[in-house]
Amino acid sequence: MTTAQDVTRRLAIAEYRVVGEPPEPDLEGLVRLAATVCGVSTAVINIIDDRLQHQIAAVGFTPSMCSREDSMCAVVFQKPGHVVVPDARADDRFADNPFVTGAIANIRFYASSPLITPAGIPIGTLCVFDEETGDLSPADSAALAILAHQVVDVLELRRMTRALQASNDQLETFAAQVSHDLRNPLAAVTGFIELAADSPELADAPRAARALARAESAATRMERMIADLLEYARSGGAEPRREPVALDGVLRVVMEDLDAALRRSAARVAIDTPATVLGDPTLLGVLLQNLIANAVKFSAASGVPPYVEVTASPISSGWRITVEDNGPGIEPDNRESVFDLLERGDAHDVPGWGIGLSTCRRIVEAHGGLIGIEDSPLGGACVWMVLPGAGAELPLPVVALH
């Protein structure tokens, strides 16, 4: 009868995708090492589900499968776990087993160490055996246990690599869809702006002409940003451009794009960023725009006129950039978990990309930097980033942008 524990084990095994697949070279290497360390010619990695024992990598014989009832490892892989048996004929657990009696094989010496997943689920063993009686020294027995842990590490690495690839594929699909969805209305907006700009009535309306020129410039920047973000997503988010980027120039563009939103909320933003960092100007712009928009949003939600300070200070490894606000702040217990959020939450009424702090962290880490949150002297939150500098340089002039 299949138990709940069997179902849990089966699901855990399925995540590793090794049953029925060709042996992995890394797993075969660990099996050979186990045989060498233990001084035997045969070793195997057994994966045990509710019905069968699957030999996924072996040395000394061709891996196959057998029923769980015939398996020696199925007797011990859950409890007591690590086992060393000098002569299986003298052990009540194995004396009648077909691998011992000669019905299948003539095993005498047997040792195994369980494969335990990080979730604590036993899924099989790393097993060594021989047709001659034998034993393991304490050091060799400990080495077998270590190698069993290494087997699980290899399986986990395979699983996480597949998950990462799936995540990157989803990111590319999402970015392509967002790119398509944004480009259609953007093309319409740009077309209407061009029609309006060509209107003869604007000859007597210089203010409207200037506003349309700004709108056209913003639409052009948005098109470029969409293209750059799509390319970044297609690369898996791992390879941003590397060039010297003056933060004051990036922030000029950010403030231009946030101008209307800042005016609506009566927000003030003070900027002191005499820094040139090494990175991707588009991604850094998205990062700073998101952080400033969030700071304004949460400050306004707390009922105070939003005030935000963006500063940059030189450190030995580059620059420390901070975005501080006078909002409600973030509780210490939540300062790590907020970086796991992938949606906008209640930020739909705030202009900006709404890409979430998780993507902010991804951008910073892709640049070789760090990001975190602490209290701000302004009373709210201080999001700090450490980014690499662009080399020796003279300080840039401080520019007040808003």
From TrEMBL:
Keywords: Kinase, Phosphoprotein, Transferase, Two-component regulatory system. Signal peptide: none annotated. InterPro entries: BphY/WalK/GraS-like, GAF-like_dom_sf, HATPase_C_sf, HATPase_dom, His_kinase_dom, HisK_dim/P_dom, HisK_dim/P_sf, Sig_transdc_His_kin-like_C. It catalyses: ATP + protein L-histidine = ADP + protein N-phospho-L-histidine. SUPFAM superfamilies: ATPase domain of HSP90 chaperone/DNA topoisomerase II/histidine kinase (SSF55874), GAF domain-like (SSF55781), Homodimeric domain of signal transducing histidine kinase (SSF47384). It is found in: Cell membrane. Its main location: membrane. Its EC number is 2.7.13.3. Gene3D superfamilies: 1.10.287.130, 3.30.450.40, Histidine kinase-like ATPase, C-terminal domain (3.30.565.10). It holds the Pfam family HisKA. Residues 177-391 form the Histidine kinase domain. SMART domains: HATPase_c, HisKA. CDD domains: HisKA (cd00082). PANTHER family: BACTERIOPHYTOCHROME, TWO-COMPONENT HISTIDINE KINASE. This is Sensor-like histidine kinase SenX3. It comes from Microbacterium lacus.
